[in-house]
Structure formats: C-alpha cells, structure tokens
Design brief:
Blueprint (H helix, E strand, L loop, with lengths): L8 H4 L6 H8 L3 H19 L2 H7 L9 H10 L13 H7 L2 H10 L12 H12 L2 H4 L5 H10 L3 E2 L7 E4 L12 E8 L4 E6 L8 E6 L3 E5 L6
Antiparallel strand pairs: 1-6, 2-3, 2-6, 3-4, 4-5
Helix pairs in contact: 5-8, 6-8
Length: 227
Amino acid sequence: MAEHRFINAPKIAKIALGATVVAAALGANAAVYASAQHSAETQAVQANGGPEQRAAKGHEAKVNVTAQQVLSLAKAQVGTSENAAGGGTKFQQWYAGSQRGAETAQRDGGSRQDYLNAAWCSMFVSWVGEESGARPQVGWDAYTVAHAKWFAANDRWGTEAKPGAVVFFSWSGSKSLSAINHVGFVVKDNGDGTISTIEGNTGNGKVEQRVRPTSQVVGYGYPHYAA
C-alpha cells in the first residue's frame, strides 16, 4: 500500500465487511475486548471529555515511559506486513476494536470495520503508544492530520527532530498540517539534512526503518516522556 493518510472511511474501504467477518478478523476475544475498552473509555470521556476536548482544556496526562522504551517497541515491529488487501495487521485490528476507532469513525464517516483495510501509519504510531503505556502522550488517531493537530492543540508541536518524537510528512514539501500524508517515529537526527525513522505502512506495506529528508517533514509532535 502506498504511504498516505487515512481518508474518510467511505472513500478508503476496499470491501464491505459484515459483523461476522469483523469478529473473525478481530479474534475470538473481540467482543470482550471491545466491551472493556468501551467501559474504560466511556468513563474517561465522561470525566474529561474526548481527546480533542482534553487538548483544548489543557489537560496534561503524565506517563512513566521513556523515548527509548517507545522506540524499542516500535523497532520490534519492523518487518510486520499487511496482506494483499492492505489489511491484516494487529495495528488495524486493535484500532478497529477500540473505542477511539468508534469515535473517529463517527467523526470521519463510515464504521470501525473500515479501519481493517485502511492506511495504517497513524494506527501503528497509536498502537505503539498504547502498548508502551505512553498513549496519553503519543495520542491515538487513524487520520494523520487530526493526529498532528492534537499535538499542536497541546502546544507540543515544533520543527526540531528529537528521538521518540512523532514525525509528520508531506511528500509535496508543504509545511501545512492539512497536507500531511504520513507519520512515524524519529530515531535520530542524522545531522545531514536527513532523519532516521521507524514507520508503519511504508511503500512496501510494512513496518520499516527509513532515512528521510527533512525537506519532507511538516513538523514534529513531542510526547512528554519520562526522563
């Protein structure tokens, strides 16, 4: 699958998946998982509002996770590949079964099932945040533009490459958030006009380590990691 942001669900769905197919794709424990996710997330939303509202209110969740821990988990996923339909990854399956998937499907149109075969670069970043315990700082979204705006709304947006930062790309070289096409994690600034990254949903449909020119970077989101 080509590297690109998640577009409104009706526009990117490759196949119509019924409830039975979705349940199979998410695994035998999907219903239990989704129910638990819904309960926990509903309580959080009721207490603090949704992710966009929390950002607007300036709420700052703390995590005890370092940048290196996040990068180590991301690196461990290198080689994970999508199937011929552009789906089948655990990142898509997790997101489709999450309450956040329900929220963003309602926001963007379509349904959670559509995420099972959707562009998954931002879902990969979100999954790493979830699994590492850094989700409150990494954020979670399937749409790269919305993910970047979440960092900007939290005053955690800038132009300096830092290890563990979430990097947003525009292949046109635009610096507009609305032009973002792709997202990944910064491993390091190479000091020569390039950065080393770990990204999901590359042009090869995999999680890969890449070297990218900074001319394609729109900006960086900065999670507040533990020291």
